[in-house]
Batch of 4 targets.
Target 1
Amino acid sequence: MDYAVYGILQARILEWVPFPFSRGSSQLRDQTQVSCIAGGFFTTQNGVNPDWEKKVIEYFKEKLKENNAPKWVPSLNEVPLHYLKPNSFVKFRCMVQDMFDPEFYMGVYETVNRNTKARVLHFGKYRDVAECGPQQEVDLNSPRTTTLERQTFYCVPVPGESTWVKEISFISTFLFSRSWKSFFNPSFNAYVNANQARVSPSTSYTPSRHKRSYEDDEDMDLQPNKQKDQHTGARQAGNVGGLQWCGEPKRLETEASSGQQLSSLNLSSPFDLNFPLPGEKGPACLVKVYEDWDCFKVNDVLELYGILSVDPVLSILNNDERDASSLLDPMECTDMAEEQRVHSPPASLVPRIHVVLAQKLQHINPLLPACLNKEEGKTCKFVSGFMSELSPVRAELLGFLTHALLGDSLAAEYLILHLISTVYTRRDVLPLGKFTVNLSGCPRNSTFTEHLYRIIQHLVPASFRLQMTIENMNHLKFIPHKDYAANRLVSGLLQLPSHTSLVIDETLLEQGQLDTAGVHNVTALSNLITWQKVDYDFSYHQMEFPCNINVFITSEGRSLLPADCQIHLQPQLMPPNMEEYMNSLLSAVLPSVLNKFRIYLTLLRFLDYSISDEITKAVEDDFVEMRKNDPQSITADDLHQLLIVARFLSLSAGQTTLSRERWLRAKQLESLRRARLQQQKCVNGNEL
């Protein structure tokens, strides 16, 4: 899509906030109805409904099933934060970058009217700030107060997410929202009454630990964060002490200057959003999960639906907590202040999302159903319909990649196999299904590799190009490490979600010396390729994080890094202007055809695959025969390689079982590849 058109569409859609539910008879018509949902489930004539939380979740699950309702929910990935009102119902597509300590909050609390002494129960779920009406205050000593626990995750937009994924998601929202003549903001005012609210600083606290030596690393002292009794920066409406903030807050716009927020926090440097990849954009969020948080782990990709919390009061409270901590021991104060700064950033920079519904995503391709394993009618119909036209799609994709690889059809075959490869299981420590390809013979001092990566970017949902220069290897942070002072996981380049395409460009490597950090980075890349794991650095120990990353290496000669398969490029043409050639190649492909390529490459990753007993016996006999003819020509590793090639060759044709025909084709491809490498060895002895 033309970026100018994309910008115009973005400007137009931001004039509205689409209503999240369908236009059926049971839809929510206005904010008043939305406000009543949780409150209505929470209380009954007989008191608190014990099943209110379950009813709220079930309600939204049902609503989101109606007529493409998820497309109506404003997304933080597409809509800038300052266009969303506080307490809106929103969605967010993200990766779990870090997991913070559990947080305790007032699940149920009681307010007392100072004049009438009337008592009212409130729920603290889905809130950062306790709410009470005029002349009310929170009774912290009430026996009906209930303390509950929630888990906080630090989530960032999916690293390396392709532009086309963002565009398709955005345009999808635009098309659905445009069909309305008027729009409603789905504010979740069950949790805030902006005109009458009186605010208590916080409904929660996180365990604050004294910093410890290595010997004391496992001993954790829990202590609530200290808060000031009064907030002098607020407009006074009475002398109320304790936890109440004695102001009469009005709803503040979320577009408050981030610069003012930073200065109010006395930050010495701009807040680091801790994105794994450089140049990433989008909001990072503190995600608060109330149920089943054990299902989620670091690096998982999630789609969240929940309540957006951007109350400016949070920044004021956190600043006051830092002031209170300054009364402690200076060394301890420094550590606590750093942890507080990271764990409680300004809400204008890092909004909070209180999760109502969450699901782990298999993939982020917006052209496919979110879950491909479900045997639902729509999903099965979509998959079967696409599989029926798979053969022409593969043929067109092969032709497209052949042109991208300068006329080399054999290299295009292997690139297809690489792009649909995935780790399907692990046997002990060995990841089965990984298929790292090294494309050698790439022209040096050319823009070929850069433009080849652009082609890959247009095909896969997430990717990153690592320019393997001496400077980058010595200075970039590849491995995530634990910062104990801030109590957070500092991201690195290799903190990537599953199915990310990592393109390593070795053609830029020149003579030079790797320092200690550079050697560690090369080792980390080698471990990623060989074992599909990254060892995160926790100072006193390494923690192994398994991954599923497709690594594609471009190089002039054989790569310095290990690879499962080396294919030497044999260009059939060398265009005088590489940029013009690649641009014309992309512009010649119809958007509908490009979308079919994208569906093809994502869908085939998730197909089941098996080998019948009959074919297994035929493969074994074939292997024995090959060993008889030339024992040195094929080893057990070569057989494994043949089986991997045969697997992805079958899947690329839409076949979920290995046939004799595909086995012979796999042998033919491998024979051609080996012959080409042998030929190159004769030309250049150090090639192999």
Note: Residues 1-36, 178-201, 207-269 have pLDDT under 50 and may be disordered.
Target 2
Amino acid sequence: MPKNSKAVKRELDDDVTESVKDLLSNEDACDDSFKKSSLIVNGQEGEGKECDVEEGGSDSEEEERPAWNSKLQYILAQVGFSVGLGNVWRFPYLCQKNGGGAYLVPYLILLVLIGIPLFFLELAVGQRIRRGSIGVWNYISPRLGGIGFASCVVCFFVALYYNVIISWSLFYFSQSFQQPLPWHECPLIKNKTSTYVVPECEKSSATTYYWYRDALDISDSISEGGGLNWKMTVCLLAAWSMVCLAMIKGIQSSGKVMYFSSLFPYVVLICFLARALLLKGSVDGIRHMFTPKLEIMLEAKVWREAATQVFFALGLGFGGVIAFSSYNKRDNNCHFDAVLVSFINFFTSVLATLVVFAVLGFKANVMNSKCVALNTNRIVALLGNGIEATLIPHHINLTQVSQVTADDYHQMIDIIKGVKEDEFQKLGLESCTIEDELNKAVQGTGLAFIAFTEAMTHFPASPFWSVMFFLMLVNLGLGSMFGTIEGILTPLIDAFKVRKELLTVGCCALAFSIGLLFVQRSGNYFVTMFDDYSATLPLLIVVVLENIAVAWVYGIDKFFEDLKEMLGFAPYRFYYYMWKYVTPILLLVLLCASFIQLIMTPPSYSAWIQEEAMEKTLPFPPWGIGVCISLVVMAIMPVPVVFCLRYFNIVDDGSDGLAAVSYKKARIIKESGRPEDDDDASLIHGKSPSEAPSPMPGIYRKQSGGGTEGDTAPNGRYGIGYLMPSTPDTPESDS
């Protein structure tokens, strides 16, 4: 019988030769004597804890790897990771800026063409290979193993500044238990002779002043460090402590936290929507939001921003998706999970947009009423001195300014503008329309900590709503942080076998120490720098390489076979063409567009100038530009470094693998691998490693008779076989 055949040799009806796939499916058949047998990997002895030979060569990963307590816990973890602060303060801004309701059309199209296929791809490889990002991409293509390291670096950069935003939310949360809220009005300065409003606050607004001066105590430029802000330092320590405690036991601890951190934001959003709809002007905000501007849809910028939002909304490329799915059972329907989580994310964004613009509509109505009252007083002052009393309609009573409605004011303005067309600009009267207020687009921290906080000061029982809002932001941030930190810890634990508790504490302590950069007086400018440069371009490159690695390096046909074996059904052919052609092309176009925009837009940041009480765009100093470039280079560097190290054989690329596994209930014999030309089956698929290259070194069992190491097969792999104790330690005959 030829050595490289797949014939089954039976002795005493107990001797069975199986592939790695069959061995994995029969783990329970291993007896105690086999479990206790010694394991040798590349000449080193180690205790073989179990007989489960992973397709990646890990001897005990299958049984030792943690698992989700329930499918619901897993879905909540993925939803918590993908639904973050961007859904609340980025998506509504993009929706307003890019055509209102019409923006949903390109977003949905790109969600189907880019978002769901790539999300499905990451879920599938994580679930099948059961490793973090480093192990997965090293497994699929060792030369592209740097993808996993790049994901870890990006995750670390993002975690550094993302937790600072959580610390800001914690600060506002702690200050919300007051009536009235501390940002309700401008503070007064009292001296011996008079009392006056703080000039910086008088020139801006109460909420703007509180954000920049009381909360951040911000400096005038990034070059002025200004020392640590102790209030924010304490909040940052609290934020990292929360993350550390939730993650220290892995998914066993973080999974339980997910029930609250993932579901609570929906409770708050629904409560806010119900409350906002009862306020005057909320419908105006929603109507303004979803009034489509179809002509804007034709602009390339709209599609680029929609693609970028889809990309980041699902957390692609971070490694968190892969890490979470690696704790699933192999037969879990990850296609259903991908579609479900993607659309939950989309509908969350729409719900958040409804809430934001209902609240902003109410705020616009309040501000418009103030504008009408202020300008009506101006008209009263100008009567007989630029404006004739005959121009005022008789039904409008200017002696009671508070009773003048917005319609009355607009009627007066139209008449005055028609009669004094040339002189109207000199009168200094404003149009005072709700649309003008709503068109003042704000996003990010400006929306959460200035616009929204100002709106809540006009809510009845404003402290309650402020507590709810900032607790929601904390939970949204923590859900994303759990996935981001898991994207760092899981790959490192899989690759280097360190203790989860020690690595978690060490990672959080290091991140807190570096994070002190963000809680100095100029820290907000560094948050902007990291947000703009540490993630966007590197993550796009990572995801492009992920797609190419699976579809072209590994092979889309093999990957489809793997999915069919894992899921029990063949995925829609739609994904075949998406992964192989459409998605890579769209990603490359998006990458080029982002790179061009990065080059054409000079590195700058928005600084708060205390004397002028306004924001001003300033260029980064030369050292700041150097930091921006370094962030991009450091994030991408692992990809070419690992490729070169393995291409030039400086580091073993792990191309050696296992030959067919011959399983018998006692000792082993050596069995040669198949010829190299047959070596074309999948890595992820559960076929025998004789048919597939494995990134792990050859593994064989030491024979009780003190047998020597296995002979190297023609394709560089070790053979494995199992014999009954009574069988002689001789190789199989060729007959």
Note: The two ends are 4 Å apart (CA to CA).
Target 3
Amino acid sequence: MYGFINTCLRTLVVEKFGEETWEKLRLLAEVQDTFMTYEIYDDVITLRLVQEACKMLDVSSEVVLKLFGEYFFSFCKMSGYDTMLRTLGGNLVEFIENLDALHSYLALSYEEMNAPSFRVERTNDGRTLLHYYSDRKGLHYIVPGIIEAVAKDFFGSKVTMTILEQPKEQERTGKREHVIFLMTQTSEGAKGEEAHLNGGDGTVERKVMSDHIQHSFCPRYPKRLWIEEQAFCNAFPFHIVFDQNLVVKHTGVNIQKFVPGLQKTGCRLDEYFSVVHPEVTLNIHSIKKFINSQFVLKTRREMLPESLQNQTMLKLRGQMVWMESLHCMVYLCSPKLRSLQELEERGLHLADIAQHDTTRDLILLNQQRLAEIELSNQLERKKEELRILSRNLEVEKKKTETLLYAMLPRHVANQLKEGKKVDAGEFKVCTILFSDVVTFTNICAACEPIQIVHMLNSMYSRFDRLTNVHDVYKVETIGDAYMVVGGVPIPKDTHAERVANFALGMRIAAREVTNPITGKPIQIRVGLHTGPVLAGVVGEKMPRYCLFGDTVNTASRMESHGVPDHIHLSPFTYSALKDKMFEIRERGEIQVKGKGLMDTYFLIQNLQLSEDQIMGRGKEETCVYRDNLQEEEHGPDNKTAEEQNNVSEVEEERTSSIKEESRSSSAHLSADDPSPDPSADITSSVSAVHYHVPDYFAPVDDGLPPENISINSRLCTVL
């Protein structure tokens, strides 16, 4: 069943018995709290709710289902189907006879709907019998609740329904349950009608006038039919006339086009079609019995030409009319279609459908209706998601620990959680990466802010994933600048290799992000430098793990003096990578702000790893580094214990070293000197106090465009 049914049942329990009763009922039935209108749910959920409701209220299923039937009618009216139901028939019998047609229409929106079927039979002794067919056993008690509510609300009459028998179904080939009700209809009385008349809305007055017209009307038929055979076949292009033996006499012109075998003389209807609805055997007796039902026929694939067998089979929907004088049946029908897509799948065009046939309008209207249903379904899902998020707010608060670990290294976060002070630590060698977006200033000037946010979010999400692939630490993002370090906060021998592979992955990932102005992939500039840094936590309200030192300055210069879509390496990073299976091209000597002349290089590719390995895609083994293999040899448990036991000692050692140097008269790094060789002992030349930070607000006088140096002012806060 669709969620519409279960939502109705939930609303009934809440209105009649309260929210607490529903909560208790759903827990007993082990079902969810809310249901999506256009989503399909197992029938077991509905049956389980009914069974538990019977136990809770200590009543029979007949009482519960009848109450549900009465409320279901009211719920349908409240849901916007009031006018549709009210105009279904002029009396109760016509209303019931057209229920199948209503279900057929609703199936355009609820494609998988498996609705029950109804048939009214008038016996020779004047009784009115209602035949109910369904695939679901045990739910027939809903029918009296619905029919009695309809009779009272729409037709001002009282109906009593009693079950005559439940015969074993033989005529129908699909529905498993067949229940025959005896309907006894009586008027509510003149007093009730007078009360409605005095109500002032004129509803009963209009009904009386309508009934008078219907009873006084007498149709007039012509003595002969003034229409040519050819005109009739063109006007009704999808009709079929067949006799008692199902031998086809003639058909409409368009049905011959899609089922060419019907042009043969003496062909039988059941050779080319099977019955979809009602689910009966295709013979004249069954057709006469269900003459008031809509018939849906489907073409048999094996009887079509080979050129048409690959298409979706054509379904016809229409009315059967028995012609007594000719002993023939005419099937007036049209293609059963839900959308323009189905029209194309069956090789049809709107021109194939007669202009007087409302199927043309129905297809176009339903195309819009399907889009509205999809939007409504999405809104329902969003509403449900918001409700779940609201309910689980307290649970989500516990995830702040994970968020803290994403902002700070794990051992630093643990120290802050314990209320300890985190002292700065020195790292003798690491590799730092900076990147920015080429012409970012121009993009910002030409785009809406939300477009910039989407572009950066798409790019940074890809970069963040790569930090996990290569186990490098993301330090900061400022605007379009992205800063990463390898070998910090946990020292790694392969820090340069990790950052280099990460840079190659960045370049690949950036090509998957489009420029909102041109629609082409964006380009980034990447710069790498290797050297010593000082690392520590800055701030208390929103603590950040920041890096300080001339290595940061030089890495920034490598990025700002770089070339679009290239990875710019300092000579020290080149020294760390030159024997590591990387293709590196020499750029030559360039003038670097604050550094003078430097020989720099471009990283081209990794000669050993594939693109999928660098990007961490698929099941193929991703990047494996030497230090990872060494850690695996010691085992994961030993690794964790070693990290936890030694990390505090390492931090204390770094801190004490820095404090001693701060008390001594050590030299500071000059902005004009190149970074020290990472292989040399640089302990005596690093000071936590005396770092000289160049003027990043000064423009670089080297002929580069302004966007190449725009990162300098943004990085002041980091440096």
Note: The two ends are 62 Å apart (CA to CA).
Target 4
Amino acid sequence: MATAMDWLPWSLLLFSLMYETSTFYVPGVAPINFHQNDPVEIKAVKLTSSRTQLPYEYYSLPFCQPSKITYKAENLGEVLRGDRIVNTPFQVLMNSEKKCEVLCSQSNKPVTLTVEQSRLVAERITEDYYVHLIADNLPVATRLELYSNRDSDDKKKEKDVQFEHGYRLGFTDVNKIYLHNHLSFILYYHREDMEEDQEHTYRVVRFEVIPQSIRLEDLKTDEKSSCTLPEGTNSSPQEIDPTKENQLYFTYSVHWEESDIKWASRWDTYLTMSDVQIHWFSIINSVVVVFFLSGILSMIIIRTLRKDIANYNKEDDIEDTMEESGWKLVHGDVFRPPQYPMILSSLLGSGIQLFCMILIVIFVAMLGMLSPSSRGALMTTACFLFMFMGVFGGFSAGRLYRTLKGHRWKKGAFCTATLYPGVVFGICFVLNCFIWGKHSSGAVPFPTMVALLCMWFGISLPLVYLGYYFGFRKQPYDNPVRTNQIPRQIPEQRWYMNRFVGILMAGILPFGAMFIELFFIFSAIWENQFYYLFGFLFLVFIILVVSCSQISIVMVYFQLCAEDYRWWWRNFLVSGGSAFYVLVYAIFYFVNKLDIVEFIPSLLYFGYTALMVLSFWLLTGTIGFYAAYMFVRKIYAAVKID
């Protein structure tokens, strides 16, 4: 009986946990229940354009302002993305319709834009700017209806509905500029199932807008700030003349519709893609090709190695073996420390730091904990993880530096903690100065920059030192053969052993595994799309690791067979060869997909691309280097050395 009584509290605890789990939500994204006529706050995020790549605050343009402007406290990721979430004067009540209402109209007078304001609005419209609003953390979208069936004889053409993030600020037609000054909000709610005596609650599940341009003369207003929209197509759009003052009304209407979509699935609309099948097919194709090539490479290398080791270990044909050229002949030099061991170990330490950070971020995002609804969470997590992974980067760099006969561990630790982050910070600071000059919200504020520096020198640097100290104290990697005192002469190498040719050859397979995914990542970064395919990305990352490792092993095997033992730096550079193809693809994407013509947007694109390419080279170079190092130690441990 006592045993049963002992188990009872644990059973109750387990039951309560099971009950709680059914109502568990990721922090920050729990649903908000609204009652009839509860206020639903509409907030503005920013203005964006894929042509300029410079986000701006909502109130950088002369929109109507509420009596008190309140900015939301933002996380690090939101600040770095250029989000400046602020309240707006739109009055929206749950399940309450509004035909037409005028914003910021004093005594029924229209808003007057000065010449300077008119010029700024006209400039933003010609630069294809989009306005981004949110309601209950759900971004506004513009519905696009495309006809998928092009057969003119078929009267029942199928509509393919897609959604555009945000809404266009305005449009141009025959050298005239028009502003979208009327917004028709369409909000969808899901009615929650309640007991009979309880009041119904609603949840917002979709937020659409139909932007319209309506001329001042066509809008009829009254003293209660209500207005009447013109019927049919009789109205003319509201033109903005940048050379003079313009008068106009800012108006909006609200329409509510009930929806079957549940709160948990409300983001599906925004993440719908028109080419899911193509994406699936491309990924499967990449997987099959890479694994097929990897299998062939593995088979060839294993069979060749077995043959080599068997020949080298034969005792009866010693004379033939001695005359034979091959990787065994460089056994006395293969582990000779390279030039600049401190820089090599520092770069590889940063590569390990990046590898751990990317692996954890992709895995956590794949579990759905860094979804687009958690605004800025992905970038915040990545920044903090990179800082905390400094302990692993420092440990691996310290141990390798000790193995390469290094002695100045304090200088090595400082180099590991500052070399790669210093380059990143330097490039970002220079780019940030240009963004500041444009008064864009994409510029990182000075306090945030100081906070990032404090994180770097207060978290990352001490952790790198800590890891480096323990890594340097640990026993160095055990190399199976001794290094000769006199370096062996290296024979003249064939043309295909050239470093640049090696980079070109080694980069093809890893790049082929991931270039499909690269298109979606570039679209998310440069064209303001949502990226959410982290399951695909995790699979691609695993394939990338496998392909980089195998290519690196093949390249180091060929190099040692050519009796060139200077493999340390060469293997690190060649293994990151796919970064060269990423750079080429980025240039192709810039020329073919983006409509960027100005200097500063181009500078931003290539500045951030340079950071991506550098980081990708460090990542793939580190993966390849450690695979090659393990391979070299294994094969020299398998042969008998006199």
Note: Residues 38-270 form one domain.
